[in-house]
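Record format v2
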Amino acid sequence: MMPIGHYLFLSLALFLIGAIGVITRRNVIIVLMSIELILNAVNINLVAFSRYFGDIAGQVFALFIITDAAAEAVVGLGIIIAFFRNRETVLADEMDLLKW
Amino acid sequence: MLDNVIFYFFASIAVISAALMVTRRNAIHSAVFLITTLLATAGIFLQLRAEFLFISQIILYVGGIMVLFIFVIMLLRLDVPLPQIRSRTQKWIALLVALAVGVEAGVVLWLARKVPGQGLLIPNPAPADQLHPNTEELARSLFGAYLLPFEIASVLLLVAMVGAVVMAKKRTDA
């Protein structure tokens, strides 16, 4: 059995890559995908602790996070489609309708 | 030993394709690399003896969410390279912030590993052949102690479904 630190470092790496994606990309769809990556990194942590503590609760929470990710992706893509219909763009820095 | 090989195999696939995902300019390529990352993560779940999460990761994430993403990318005709961020400062700030967070968390994890007595108090995990069937135990927990959150999650999905339909539908009046 491997030490739990390996899983935590893998999760950390995926989380940071996702965070960099959220900050640097202009395409909103890729920003949404980076958020999925971040949620996935959290899931690795939860499942690893669930295994090492022998407590199933971590996996239950990971399941809820997958549900949340699905809901978030659906609503986010709905917003993107509605925005694209109005402005013909998916670039984040052109989404300035509420700025004045 | 075999555990190590499996872990590093899946972990390197996950990290490399995640890095490719945030750097490709074409959204479809990003989506495919994200699918690779999610499948590698599913492998990690299987190594952690979370069989139900392994299969729901593949069915839900790869089969559901990512297909939705690719569907929208194709629908909006975004499968072409889009212009990247113009300002270089934002990239440097992003890298700096990520580096700071990474170093901080890495140092904490490293110290927690080193310091005896104050580290991560992780008991030795149960041997794999003494574990209960994973799906059965998960179901007992989900429909027992976590029944209320489970029902709330179903309401959340309903709300998300209605919201997506309302937002993506064509406004005919108004």
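Chain B touches chain A through 81 residues (CB under 8 Å).
Chain B has six helices and no strands.
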